[in-house]
Design brief:
Length: 191
């Protein structure tokens, strides 16, 4: 497994890197058989340290968590505990997902844009109806089943996930609703 351990405007020493590698190695070995990459980023937010971790699994799924604490090791432990809880909750589903999949998850490319917020007041008429693009990035769209998309949404902690439905090849969206339920948009089924 590849480790990428870094700090945003803080120095991450060898002792912390060794600790992170050993703890994450144990965690991932316990729940996910073949992880591919673990990205850990430490940063400061006022008086607290923040640890953000993303684990890429060979099944195409990602697990991520964020921990806060006054000390850097405690922030990592908080993050690790959240990942442990996520992976423990989905252990059976992750392993079943890997056993039923004969080929790795395929990713299609897509474009992702960040649009500038409107600075104008509600009463003023905008000069143009075209939004201003302030950033353009490459997005990866996985080709997975609806169940796998819901599991990915839960593991990653995102509010929504765009994916290509393996059942019919169309683009679908799953999202977390305000009432706590999961919504699924399948344009192919609309009439």
């Amino acid at each position: 497994m590849r480790y990428q351990i870094s700090g945003k405007q803080i120095d991450v020493g060898e002792a912390l890197q060794t600790h992170v590698k050993s703890e994450m190695g144990e965690l991932v070995e316990k729940y996910a058989q073949r992880p591919t990459e673990c990205i850990v980023v430490f940063s400061r937010s006022a008086h607290e340290y923040v640890c953000e971790t993303v684990i890429h699994l060979s099944t195409g799924l990602n697990a991520q968590a964020k921990g806060h604490a006054v000390e850097i090791y405690a922030a990592f432990e908080s993050c690790r505990e959240k990942l442990d809880k996520q992976l423990r909750r989905y252990k059976r589903r992750i392993r079943n997902h890997h056993n039923h999949r004969t080929a790795p998850v395929e990713f299609a490319g897509g474009s992702s844009y960040i649009l500038a917020a409107s600075d104008e007041t509600e009463d003023a008429e905008p000069d143009t109806l075209q939004p201003v693009v302030i950033a353009e990035m490459e997005a990866k769209i996985p080709s997975i089943t609806v169940g796998e998309a819901v599991m990915q949404l839960e593991l990653a902690g995102h509010r929504m996930l765009v994916f290509r439905n393996e059942g019919h090849g169309g683009v679908n969206v799953v999202y977390r609703r305000d009432d706590g339920n999961i919504g699924w948009i399948d344009p192919r089924n609309s009439r």
